[in-house]
């Protein structure tokens, strides 16, 4: 039994599963759209399924306010603005959405223009995450992106002209054949656009991807680490705060939605393959749920649900009540990604457990030089951030 006195902040994640072309490194639940499908009709059916999914989730969060919304994919910017407006209106009619809610949409260059950006903003999107990955045409081709550097630059300018002042740029490093100079050039070009946030990820070969089966030649570990350090230095000099392993922000522009994940907050997950995590003050437990992955099966199940008397969400294919050990591990799995760590009281507030639940592992991490523990504050050391997997495994 846990002991919640308050509940953590609540977010909403919405998964849009379609994209123009599957990238060879991508292990997300994304599916190539086909010319045989009418995307407008398909997306309309998908929105109906999303709202149905949300309605079955609502009893678990009655009375709670949603602080952030994140629409990820796939390529959510493929959706038509009027359909996005319908989706957000339906959500507002069903949940208590904070007046200051951060509402993020992922967008890919080549799928948007200034008019579409402006319509997304009018619909309620107030933060964009644009998947640039690189400003180098040769590298973009090697990683299977459908846009080029000019389209990437144009998308950023068009988003700014449409009125967006909270924009994240996604960049990757350690790309096939990439040099240190090319990695630094990408960062320099990103900084020049004067956006508020930058995500900088190392390309990794994930299982069940094309790159895992046909591995490209990647920079070695030493070169990859040099890229990471020197790019971090450029970002620091440009006024970006390194606040999470792969995230950098100008003052006050940290991604609130992702911070809620990293601080082990709660979130509803709707859409094909979406995951959610909800704390229950009445039952004093934490439950994870996940949905049917394939979008066509997801839509069909939601459609059948509406014509049945079954009160269970048919698109939910799994549910797990977390054990105390699971909770301790998952909290640390997320919170150790935060460069400045966390206040020890947050552990109790967001897990319902006393800190002694993980005290032996914390002491071991201190002994190994992977974390600093000063009074009520716990944070990873530079060594801990460098060897993050080893730090996190201590809490398994």
What report would you give on this structure?
- The protein folds into two domains: 10-262, TIM Barrel, CATH 3.20.20.70; 324-393, Arc Repressor Mutant, subunit A (Orthogonal Bundle), CATH 1.10.10.10.
- The chain is of the alpha/beta class.
- α2 links the parallel β4 and β5.
- The chain contains 15 helices and 17 strands.
- The chain has a nine-stranded mixed sheet with strand order 9-10-8-7-6-5-4-1-11, with helices on both faces. Strands 12-13-14 form a three-stranded antiparallel sheet, with no helix packed on it.
Query: What portion of residues is helical?
Result: 25-40%
Shape: globular
Q: Summarize model confidence as the mean pLDDT.
A: 95
Number of strands: 17
Number of helices: 15
Q: β content, as a range? A: 15-25%
At the fold tier of CATH, the topology name of the largest domain is TIM Barrel
First and last CA, distance = 20 Å
Q: Tell me about the biggest sheet?
A: 9 strands, mixed
* Name of the top-level CATH class of the largest domain: Alpha Beta
**What's the structural domain tally?**
2
Which radius of gyration do the C-alpha atoms yield? 21 Å
Blueprint (SSEs and pairs):
Elements: E1 10-16, E2 18-19, E3 31-32, H1 39-57, E4 65-73, H2 81-92, E5 96-107, H3 114-123, E6 127-133, H4 137-142, H5 149-161, E7 167-173, H6 180-192, E8 197-202, H7 210-213, H8 221-237, E9 241-244, E10 247-249, H9 256-262, E11 266-270, E12 275-280, E13 285-291, H10 295-306, E14 316-321, H11 324-335, E15 342-343, H12 344-351, H13 359-367, E16 371-374, E17 377-380, H14 382-386, H15 388-393
Parallel strand pairs: 1-4, 1-11, 2-3, 4-5, 5-6, 6-7, 7-8
Antiparallel strand pairs: 8-10, 9-10, 12-13, 13-14, 15-17, 16-17
Helix pairs in contact: 1-2, 1-10, 2-3, 3-5, 6-8
């Amino acid at each position: 039994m846990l002991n919640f006195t308050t509940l953590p902040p609540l977010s909403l994640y919405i998964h849009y599963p379609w994209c123009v072309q599957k990238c060879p490194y991508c292990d997300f639940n994304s599916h190539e759209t086909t010319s045989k499908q009418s995307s407008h009709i398909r997306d309309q059916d998908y929105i109906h399924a999303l709202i149905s999914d949300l309605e079955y989730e609502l009893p678990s969060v009655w009375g709670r306010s949603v602080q952030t919304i994140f629409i990820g994919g796939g390529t959510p910017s493929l959706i038509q603005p009027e359909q996005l407006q319908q989706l957000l209106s339906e959500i507002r009619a069903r949940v208590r959405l904070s007046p200051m809610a951060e509402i993020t949409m992922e967008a890919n260059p080549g799928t948007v223009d200034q008019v579409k950006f402006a319509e997304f903003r009018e619909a309620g999107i107030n933060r964009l995450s644009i998947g640039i990955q690189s400003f180098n045409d040769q590298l973009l081709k090697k990683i299977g992106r459908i846009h080029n550097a000019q389209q990437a630059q144009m998308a950023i300018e068009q988003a700014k002209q449409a009125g967006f002042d909270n924009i994240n740029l996604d960049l990757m490093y350690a790309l096939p054949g990439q040099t240190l100079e090319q990695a630094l050039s990408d960062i320099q070009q990103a900084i020049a656009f004067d956006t508020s946030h930058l995500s900088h990820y190392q390309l990794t070969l994930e299982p069940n991807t094309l790159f895992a089966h046909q591995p490209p030649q990647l920079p070695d570990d030493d070169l990859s680490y040099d890229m990471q350090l020197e790019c971090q230095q450029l970002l620091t000099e440009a006024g970006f705060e390194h606040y999470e392993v792969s995230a950098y922000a100008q003052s006050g522009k940290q991604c609130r939605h992702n911070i809620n994940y990293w601080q082990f907050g709660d979130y509803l997950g709707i859409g094909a393959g979406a995951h959610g995590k909800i704390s229950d003050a009445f039952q004093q437990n934490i439950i994870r749920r996940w949905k049917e992955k394939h979008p066509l099966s997801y839509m069909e199940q939601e459609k059948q649900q509406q014509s049945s008397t079954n009160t269970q969400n048919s698109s939910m294919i799994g549910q797990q009540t977390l054990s105390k050990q699971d909770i301790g591990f998952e909290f640390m799995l997320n919170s150790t990604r935060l460069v400045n760590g966390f206040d020890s009281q947050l552990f109790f507030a967001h897990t319902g457990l006393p800190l002694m639940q993980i005290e032996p592992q914390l002491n071991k991490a201190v002994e190994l030089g992977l974390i600093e523990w000063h009074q009520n504050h716990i944070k990873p050391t530079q060594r801990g951030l460098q060897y993050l997997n080893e730090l996190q495994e201590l809490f398994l």
